[in-house]
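can u do me a favor
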């Protein structure tokens, strides 16, 4: 909506004086329902006006805009990830646990969950079931990714998997995030260690290992 703005130039003079008006400019009013919501409550406005063959422009970097709720922000990025991730479903049983690699892919999200810049990290979804008779733990910081180019990436503290104190018969689900995964790699291996067991007189590491073909992965 465009509104002409005029102002009385000689208000306050005696009543017999003719009141004149001076044109100041235009006020542009945009209904709030015409403004798309954002991930933050402020945005940038760009205004461009052509008048008498001249182009006038202005920018305001701090314009108040409607904002998505925290739940909507999380749901948006989850939905984007679901569309590009590769579903696997492979399961390994070792030691006290049954581990299933559910899916993997590149996950774009806000740096601090519901605010901040957008960042992209490699994500692995997994579920873990305790198949023995006593509670045990399988921690996400024991997981690493190795690529076919000689690189290694550790799980970050932003990972959403709580593997502590898993009771018998209980299944826990979540995901790991890995920074710095080489996007030129074609094959990645998830290595997840869970201590050692005795085999005769030798101690052997319990390692869950999954191979991931990332050549058809979206979001690279």
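np, heres the sequence
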């Amino acid at each position: 909506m465009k509104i002409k703005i005029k102002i009385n130039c000689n208000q306050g003079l005696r009543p017999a004086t003719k009141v004149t008006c001076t044109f100041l400019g235009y006020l542009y009013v945009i209904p709030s329902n015409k403004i798309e919501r954002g991930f933050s409550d402020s945005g940038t406005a760009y205004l461009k006006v052509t008048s008498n063959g001249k182009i006038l422009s202005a920018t305001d970097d701090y314009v108040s805009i409607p904002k998505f709720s925290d739940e909507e922000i999380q749901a948006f990025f989850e939905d984007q990830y679901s569309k590009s991730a590769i579903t696997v479903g492979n399961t390994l049983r070792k030691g006290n646990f049954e581990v299933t690699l559910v899916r993997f892919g590149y996950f774009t999200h806000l740096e601090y969950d519901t605010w901040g810049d957008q960042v992209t990290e490699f994500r692995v979804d997994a579920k873990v079931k305790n198949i023995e008779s006593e509670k045990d733990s399988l921690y996400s910081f024991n997981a690493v990714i190795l690529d076919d180019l000689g690189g290694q990436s550790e799980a970050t503290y932003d990972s959403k998997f709580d593997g502590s104190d898993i009771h018998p018969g209980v299944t826990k689900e979540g995901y790991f995030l890995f920074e710095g995964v080489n996007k030129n790699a074609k094959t990645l291996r998830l290595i997840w260690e869970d201590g050692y067991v005795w085999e005769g007189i030798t101690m052997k590491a319990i390692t869950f290992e999954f191979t991931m073909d990332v050549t058809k992965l979206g979001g690279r």
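Residues 2-64 form one domain. hope that helps!!
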